[in-house]
């Protein structure tokens, strides 16, 4: 097993970090790791974060996502991975021409939000691109 790029208070602490790392690389969730190592889930999450920042784990590897994760679940990891800010709906609308904004409002069904329409457009574009590949 590899050495850690940071100092631990004790050999026991180092061994726990290495067990957490091994389990995370096997794809286990923080809850599963906490049960396997017999420490609180919060402690596992803190140590996973330290391992990520030390470059021993990729940011997105620390969570096991469900089949349809919401953007809220992964946005923090995506911001770190891509070093990009999420921005706001207002910034999207401000970047559009008047004609484009009018089109967007016309495409939004009554009772829906602009955010839902933009999400649907992104999903359609993504699926079209994915189907081509």
User: How many H/I helical runs?
Assistant: 7
How many extended strands?
0
Radius of gyration, whole Å = 21 Å
Number of domains: 2
Average pLDDT figure: 81
| Uncertain regions spanning at least 5 consecutive residues | 61-68
Distance between the termini: 38 Å
What would your notes on this structure say?
This protein is mainly alpha-helical. It folds into two domains: 11-82, no CATH class; 89-132. 62% of the residues lie in helices and 0% in strands. Residues 61-68 have low confidence and may be disordered.
Write the layout of secondary structure elements.
Layout: H1 11-25, H2 30-37, H3 41-53, H4 71-82, H5 89-94, H6 98-107, H7 114-132
Which tags fit this structure?
7 helices; mainly alpha; 2 domains; 133 residues; elongated
Short description:
The protein has helices at residues 11-25, 30-37, 41-53, 71-82, 89-94, 98-107, 114-132.
């Amino acid at each position: 097993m590899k050495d850690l790029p940071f100092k631990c208070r004790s050999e026991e602490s180092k061994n726990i970090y290495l067990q957490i790392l091994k389990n995370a690389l096997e794809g286990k969730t923080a809850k599963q790791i906490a049960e396997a190592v017999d420490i609180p889930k919060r402690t596992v999450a803190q140590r996973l974060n330290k391992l990520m920042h030390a470059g021993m784990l990729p940011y997105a590897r620390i969570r096991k996502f469900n089949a349809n994760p919401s953007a809220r679940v992964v946005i923090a990891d995506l911001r770190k991975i891509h070093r990009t800010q999420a921005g706001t709906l207002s910034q999207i609308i401000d970047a559009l021409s008047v004609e484009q904004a009018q089109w967007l409002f016309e495409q939004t069904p009554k009772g829906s939000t602009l955010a839902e329409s933009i999400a649907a457009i992104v999903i359609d574009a993504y699926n079209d691109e994915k189907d081509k590949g």
